[in-house]
Amino acid sequence: MAIRLAIIGGTGVYDPKMLDAMQTMEVETRYGRALLTQGEYQGHEVVFLARHGTEHGTPPHKVNYRANIAALVKLGVTRVVATAAVGSLNEKMPPGTMVLLSQFLDFTKAREATFFSGGDAGVIHTDFTEPYCADLNATLVAAAKNADFEILTGATYVTTEGPRFETPAEIRMYKLLGGDLVGMTNVPEVVLAREAGLCYSTVALSTNFAAGISPTVLTHNEVLAVMAENVEKVRRLLMEAIPSLRMERDCRCRELGSSILL
Ligand code: HPA
Predict the structure, then answer these.
(1) Which domains does the chain have, with CATH numbers?
(2) Which of 72, 90, 149, 153 is deepest in the core (most CB within 10 A)?
């Protein structure tokens, strides 16, 4: 068995139901411990990690992103597909739309956002011209086509510190800056994945129009409800994509990353 793909389940995606022979495990890293489930799908080894914990107990600014990515590297994972519930700033991405990310804007404030903090780890400036893996994105687009799902591409994701939602003034600013979607977790996850040389893509699910665009105030329950309506679509997309992954990687993600001490 081969192809170690990891699925990082965001809000509303807590359960790796599609996998067989599931086994939960804790992986110890120098950054802390990560709790994962390992299983298989059609001969492919898949690791599942619930970003916020299985009970949504960890808020976005407290997720141990470094431990999560370091644990995946330790397990031999090479590709990561993350899911993310997002607010939309773009009228072409209404609630219920699946979107692949292609750029990000980082408005986080107080997170451990790198493996390269000097000392043993060194000082390394990693290229982020293409933050998400173009090959993995193409695999997901092809899978969506096969499954007859619409998936939009090319979105710019704004990462906020949270855990509060945004003000309408912030959303107006993010829109002026070119943001399409807003969420609280993609940075530093995408950054650490690239630093570690992993292929990383995010399937974002628009759960609401963002503050000031939506006619109603936002609640976490609203996000959960729209996610619940669409989680099966995300799961089916992943089930379609996994069998088409090849062992080799032709993209540059591995070269763009660096060898890191885990
Ligand atoms: N803002 C930030 N994060 C989110 C939102 C939002 O509107 N919806 C889902 N996650």
Answers:
(1) 3-255 (3.40.50.1580)
(2) 72
